[in-house]
Design brief:
about 180 residues; alpha+beta; 5-stranded mixed beta sheet; 4 helices; 5 strands; about 60% helix; elongated
């Protein structure tokens, strides 16, 4: 029986959410599986990947073949590197302590990279928000200025009409002489 580590799709239309599962290669994509070892949410930025690295290493050691997408997710989470280090320990290339040290250094670097990406995304988001706020202030200022000009024009027009009406009443009221 060929065993695959692959994604099982969940979530509604347009909002995918995946389970990382161990399944027989002949089983349907969303069908029967042997074990669930993690989850993957591609909608978040950066994507949220949760994997039980111990179980993944056991299945890789037993010969399970990951699909291309799952391979990239396992690489992202450091599972393939951990599996590589465990194979080095089995072959006697280095000790378990050295492997643990290398893995912890790798994970610290990876966590720092992810934290930097999150900080960069937050900074970009804040900058976009500031630019949008500044643009909105400019638009509101232009609207206020045009409204003030319209009001001033309306007041001037009313004043002209009032003056014109007083002049016309003065001209029509001529005193009659001789009475």
């Amino acid at each position: 029986m060929a065993v695959k580590i692959r994604l099982q799709r969940h979530g509604k239309k347009g909002q995918p959410f995946y389970h990382i599962v161990i399944a027989d290669a002949r089983a349907a994509r969303d069908g029967k599986f042997i074990e669930k070892i993690g989850t993957y949410n591609p909608l978040t930025n950066p994507a949220t990947v949760v994997v039980n690295s111990e179980r993944a290493c056991v299945w890789l050691h037993n010969g399970a073949q990951p699909t291309d997408t799952v391979r990239s997710l396992l690489r992202y989470k450091g599972v393939l590197y951990k599996y590589h280090l465990l194979r080095g320990v089995e072959k006697g290339a280095f000790s378990q302590e050295v492997a643990d040290k290398r893995y912890s250094d790798f994970m610290e670097l990876k966590e720092k990279q992810v934290a930097d990406k999150v900080a960069k995304l937050n900074n970009e988001k804040n900058e976009k928000r500031k630019v949008a706020h500044k643009h909105e202030e400019e638009v509101n200022q232009k609207k206020a200025q045009t409204l003030a000009e319209k009001r001033a024009a309306a007041v001037a027009k009313q004043a002209e009409e009032a003056q014109a009406s007083t002049e016309s009443t003065e001209n029509t009221e001529t005193p009659v002489e001789g009475e």
